[in-house]
Design the sequence.
């Protein structure tokens, strides 16, 4: 009676077959890729999508020393089965998306398929190497309409309230009514396009990428990710507040529009600057233990 080997060792014909499967999947998803590219081009909230695959490949390159090579390219049958199950889940989601005419579900079906291919091809070693890149691909996918609408509404309300309070602190008479800030001379409407979702999604992606790249303790990376939404709101509040200050001065419409657009351009640099300050502050939070070694090093292990 022959025994089943615990590991599956990949040979050249196996990789050729996998290449054919990958090409077939790419062909099957051509319509989905076209829809994604169209969304990146037409939806300002998804304009960062073009950069996501590039950053994902860059993360793979940065972690290339962890990639399975040569004799280490052995895959346990359990990982092959787990990868097959993930691919099957992705295929089921794709079919469901087609049946229910949901391009969002079709796009999200890519995630389990990509993860399944990684597991089936390289097992644990490949997953350990590639999981940051696989996870980062989430940022190129559209948000479900329910979640996106809820975020836009809440962010718009938060931006209005925070900007109105900031103007009051600066000594400018301001009252918020709905999504409109009434000044002493005129009203400033916080439009849906100014809700900050575009800024939030892009900056959140940058923060996650920074966590994958920076050599910091886990707790600092968690703080970094959790603070990203707050920093995004602060940057958007700065934009609306600056616009309100200019409107209060009674300048011309062209000057007001220029300041509004200029503040939008510097939102991301401002957020990154705040992020750098946060990293500097976190670097100083080092508590020595009894042996004199930094407690931070213990948390990072």
Sequence:
């Amino acid at each position: 009676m022959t025994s089943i080997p615990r590991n599956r060792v990949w040979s050249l014909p196996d990789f050729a077959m996998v290449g054919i499967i990958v090409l077939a999947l790419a062909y099957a998803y051509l319509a989905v890729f076209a829809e994604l590219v169209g969304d990146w081009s037409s939806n300002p909230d998804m304009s960062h999508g073009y950069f996501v695959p590039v950053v994902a490949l860059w993360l793979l390159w940065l972690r290339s020393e962890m990639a399975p090579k040569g004799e280490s390219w052995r895959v346990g049958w359990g990982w092959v089965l787990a990868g097959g199950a993930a691919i099957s889940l992705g295929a089921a989601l794709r079919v469901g998306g087609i049946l229910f005419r949901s391009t969002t579900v079709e796009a999200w079906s890519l995630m389990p398929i990509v993860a399944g291919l990684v597991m089936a091809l390289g097992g644990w070693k490949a997953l350990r190497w590639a999981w940051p890149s696989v996870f980062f691909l989430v940022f190129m996918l559209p948000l479900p309409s329910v979640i996106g609408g809820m975020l836009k509404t809440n962010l718009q309300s938060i931006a209005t309230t925070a900007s109105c309070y900031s103007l009051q602190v600066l000594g400018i008479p301001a009252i918020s009514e709905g999504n409109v800030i009434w000044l002493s001379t005129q009203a400033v409407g916080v439009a849906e396009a100014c809700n900050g979702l575009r800024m939030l999604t892009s900056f959140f992606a940058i923060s996650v990428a920074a966590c994958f790249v920076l050599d910091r303790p886990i707790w600092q990376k968690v703080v970094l990710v959790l603070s990203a939404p707050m920093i995004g709101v602060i940057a958007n509040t700065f934009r609306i507040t600056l616009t309100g200050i200019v409107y209060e001065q009674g300048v011309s419409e062209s000057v007001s529009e220029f300041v509004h657009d200029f503040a939008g351009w510097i939102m991301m640099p401002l957020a990154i600057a705040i992020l750098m300050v946060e990293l500097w502050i976190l670097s100083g939070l080092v508590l020595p233990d009894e042996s004199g070694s930094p407690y931070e090093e213990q948390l990072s292990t």
